[in-house]
């Protein structure tokens, strides 16, 4: 079996949803991420354990006694097993040779152990131990080229030791899984954790399954999955059980202190209470172990669910409130590794809300991506003669809110309203031109609005405001209709760095009272013609329509500076599609559909006609060159790709060119980004939504 792991969906950070194929038959696979449960004698005798975990997908076996055909094939036919041994490598090889029939089957992975005493190893000694160990491993891998192996990796707090393993991993295609031992514990150096994960993702096949084992407690599951771990070994819980710990996810409590049993599992609801105070009791150990394993599995189920339907990043941040190690990892990953993580994080998502909790959310990779693209690709409408700054609203998109409707009722009194540029200030996304209010994440973020701003929020927004305003002629007057101290501070900080003239409206009580509205109206009336456009700008009448103005800028945001005006150069008509609620974008002259604006993500999905225009303007935009002339099926797989752009991002769109690179033969939404494509030889790359036949 050479096809092992396949990715189904990329999620934020390095997190991903995938599956391990167990057999050639369909429908036999292990979903990832997942938790690996230890299979132990005492558990196998426990009817509760069997009932509870009957359908669990993956177990760890360390004892030869379980390697029986009757057991593995009959009782657990649809289950996957990882076999390893706590003894020497030699014993492991002997067991392998004695049970070769079992190991040749589909549902078992051989995990090569690394059992060298961990303490008191100096760097040089540890290095020699690894080198020596890997010599024997190499032989083993070469002797059994057709078996699937997992390789245990131990780096002893020296991330550079990964280089020692590197040639072996690259040369032996029968290594399907990397088991990172003890790389993540409560007292880990978080920089080592990041170094290791990042060098694996940048240098090795991204279809290798990543497993974490060692002293891992469930509290760390969310961050481990955010770091790209697919399988987590929960065996450490057995040790914690023997130390009398009861896991509540947030805490590990000594069992004798537990009074309320905040869990409704079978152990907590039946006998665990009775044995609680007994110091040594096998039965107590069994029930406590059962609870701890159920807690781990339940928590993993929560993660699996949230990865598919909720804002997973918010969940990881929430888990960091319990642990400073998680805080540090997120902080450093967000700020120091954004240039890598941005090719891993989907550019859009369609969750109902994206939650910002405060500083931990400011530099989420999707937020940074948004801010970076906006500044890079936005360009002013050449006819702009007035800039007006507003505060954000809780309701999204802003223009659907009561306050913004009121602002618009004033602005629309002026027939030259399309010549005004509105900018909305918000935390933590920054400063947003009105035209981009419908795209992710502007259309879906939620943050508590109290009027109290921290310095970082103000700084983020004012820096972005400066960047935006610098794009305009400094003689264009800027009207500020803001009242909160925070918003004012943003503007004042920006003002210090710019030559522009700022004008503040008079605010009476709040921004939407009739007196405040009157002040806005007067100031607009007085200033709107004060800036003289030097050259005569010819502007098609279509560009005065709000949706057309928006779509031109959304196209720039997606496809690059000034692309929108070129794709839509003949003029467009926007028509609401009643069935899908999306907007059809139609070329007025030729009456052809150029694309659809998807309301949920705020992105334009081009049609082949639209893509042909784009491709004639920018030949390099998000291309994937297909190894052939016609695409079969609706999924693009790695082997079919001969060339690709280096800045592809999951969930973004790609143009598929034929082998000669002369013709657009299809359009797709990317499942993965360039780094995955670069570091893989198989797997799904993109979903094709239109193609020529
Ligand atoms: Zn319980």
Structure in words:
The structure is a single chain. With 693 residues, this protein is an alpha/beta fold. It folds into 3 domains: 5-243, TIM Barrel (Alpha-Beta Barrel); 378-527, Rossmann fold, CATH 3.40.50.10630; 541-691, Archaeosine Trna-guanine Transglycosylase, Chain: A, domain 4 (Roll). An 8-stranded parallel barrel has the order 4-5-6-7-8-9-10-11. Helix 8 (190-203) crosses helix 15 (324-336) and helix 18 (365-377) packs across helix 23. The chain binds zinc ion (ZN).
CATH level 4 superfamily of the largest domain: Queuine tRNA-ribosyltransferase-like
CATH architecture assignment name of the largest domain: Alpha-Beta Barrel
Shape: globular
In total, the number of domains comes to 3
Strand order within the widest sheet?
4-5-6-7-8-9-10-11
For the termini, the CA-CA separation is 33 Å
- What is the residue-averaged pLDDT? 92
What proportion of the residues form beta strands (DSSP E)? 15-25%
Q: What kind of sheet is the major sheet? A: 8 strands, parallel, barrel
What is the tally of helical segments?
26
Number of separate strands: 30
CATH class of the largest domain reads Alpha Beta
Which class do the helix and strand fractions yield? alpha/beta
Radius of gyration: 29 Å
Topology:
Elements: E1 5-10, E2 16-21, E3 29-32, E4 34-38, H1 41-44, H2 47-53, E5 58-61, H3 69-75, E6 80-83, H4 89-98, H5 100-103, E7 108-112, H6 123-143, E8 149-153, H7 162-171, E9 175-181, H8 190-203, E10 209-213, H9 221-226, E11 231-233, H10 236-242, E12 245-247, E13 252-254, H11 266-269, H12 272-275, H13 282-309, H14 312-320, H15 324-336, H16 338-341, E14 354-356, H17 359-362, H18 365-377, E15 386-391, H19 402-411, E16 420-426, E17 430-433, E18 445-447, H20 455-470, E19 478-480, H21 485-496, E20 502-504, H22 514-527, H23 546-559, H24 563-567, E21 572-576, E22 583-587, E23 593-598, E24 603-606, H25 608-617, E25 623-626, E26 635-637, E27 641-644, E28 653-657, E29 664-670, H26 674-678, E30 684-691
Helix pairs in contact: 8-15, 10-13, 14-15, 18-23, 19-22, 20-21
Bound molecules: zinc ion.
């Amino acid at each position: 079996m050479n096809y092992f792991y396949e990715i189904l969906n990329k999620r934020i950070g390095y997190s991903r949803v995938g599956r391990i194929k167990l057999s050639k038959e369909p429908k036999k696979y292990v979903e990832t991420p997942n938790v690996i449960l230890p299979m132990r004698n005492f558990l196998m005798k426990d009817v509760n354990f069997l009932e509870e975990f009957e359908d669990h997908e993956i177990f760890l076996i360390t004892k030869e006694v379980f390697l029986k055909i009757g057991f593995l094939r009959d009782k657990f036919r649809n289950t996957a097993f990882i076999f390893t041994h706590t003894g020497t490598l030699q014993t492991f090889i002997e067991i392998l040779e004695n049970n070769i029939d079992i190991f040749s089957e589909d549902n078992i992975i051989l995990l090569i152990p690394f059992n060298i005493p961990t303490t008191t190893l100096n760097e040089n000694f540890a290095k020699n131990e690894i080198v020596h160990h890997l010599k024997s491993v190499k032989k083993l891998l070469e002797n059994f080229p057709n078996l699937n192996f997992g390789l245990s990796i131990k780096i002893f707090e020296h991330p550079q030791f990964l280089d020692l393993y590197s040639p072996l991993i690259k040369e032996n295609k029968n290594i399907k899984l990397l088991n990172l031992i003890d790389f993540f514990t409560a007292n880990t150096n978080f920089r080592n954790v990041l170094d290791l994960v990042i060098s694996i993702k940048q240098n090795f096949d991204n279809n290798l399954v990543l497993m974490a084992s060692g002293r891992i407690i469930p509290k760390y599951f969310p961050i481990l999955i955010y770091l790209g771990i697919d399988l987590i070994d929960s065996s450490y819980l057995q040790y914690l059980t023997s130390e009398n710990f009861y896991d509540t996810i947030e805490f590990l409590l000594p069992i004798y202190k537990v009074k309320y049993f905040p869990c409704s599992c079978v152990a907590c609801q039946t006998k665990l209470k009775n044995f609680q105070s007994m110091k040594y009791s096998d039965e107590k150990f069994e029930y406590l172990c059962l609870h701890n394993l159920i807690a781990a599995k339940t928590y993993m189920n929560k993660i699996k669910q949230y990865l598919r339907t909720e804002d997973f990043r918010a969940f990881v941040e929430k888990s960091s409130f319990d642990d400073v190690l998680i805080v540090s990892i997120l902080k450093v990953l967000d700020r120091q590794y954004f240039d890598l993580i941005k090719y891993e994080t989907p550019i859009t998502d369609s969750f109902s809300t994206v939650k910002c909790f405060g500083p931990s959310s400011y530099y989420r990779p999707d937020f940074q991506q948004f801010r970076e693209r906006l500044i890079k690709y936005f360009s002013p409408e050449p006819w702009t003669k007035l800039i007006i700054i507003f505060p954000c609203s809780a309701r999204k998109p802003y223009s659907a809110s009561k306050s913004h409707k009121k602002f618009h009722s004033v602005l629309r009194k002026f027939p030259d309203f399309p010549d005004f540029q509105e900018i909305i200030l918000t935390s933590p996304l920054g400063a947003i031109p009105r035209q981009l209010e419908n795209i992710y994440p502007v259309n879906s973020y939620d943050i508590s609005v109290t009027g109290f701003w921290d310095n970082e929020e103000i700084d983020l927004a004012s820096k972005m405001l400066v960047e935006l305003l610098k794009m305009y002629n400094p003689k264009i007057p800027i009207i500020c209709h803001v009242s909160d101290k925070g918003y004012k501070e943003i503007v004042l900080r920006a003002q210090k760095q710019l030559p522009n003239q700022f004008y503040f409206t008079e605010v009476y009580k709040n921004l939407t009272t009739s007196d405040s509205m009157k002040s806005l109206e007067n100031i607009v009336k007085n200033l709107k013609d004060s800036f003289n456009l030097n050259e005569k700008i010819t502007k098609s009448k279509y560009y005065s329509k709000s949706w057309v103005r928006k779509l031109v800028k959304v196209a720039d945001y997606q496809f690059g500076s000034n692309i929108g005006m070129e794709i839509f150069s003949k003029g467009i008509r926007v028509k609401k599609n009643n069935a899908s609620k999306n907007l059809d974008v139609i070329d007025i002259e030729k009456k052809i559909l150029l694309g659809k604006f998807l309301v949920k993500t705020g992105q334009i999905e081009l049609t082949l006609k639209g893509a042909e225009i784009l491709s004639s303007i920018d030949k390099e935009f998000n291309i994937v060159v297909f190894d052939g002339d016609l695409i079969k099926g609706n999924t693009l797989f790695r082997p079919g790709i001969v060339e690709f752009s280096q800045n592809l991002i999951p969930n973004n769109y790609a143009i598929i060119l034929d082998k000669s690179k002369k013709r657009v033969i299809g359009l797709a939404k990317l499942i993965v980004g360039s780094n995955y494509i670069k570091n893989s030889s198989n797997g799904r790359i993109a979903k094709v939504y239109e193609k020529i036949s």
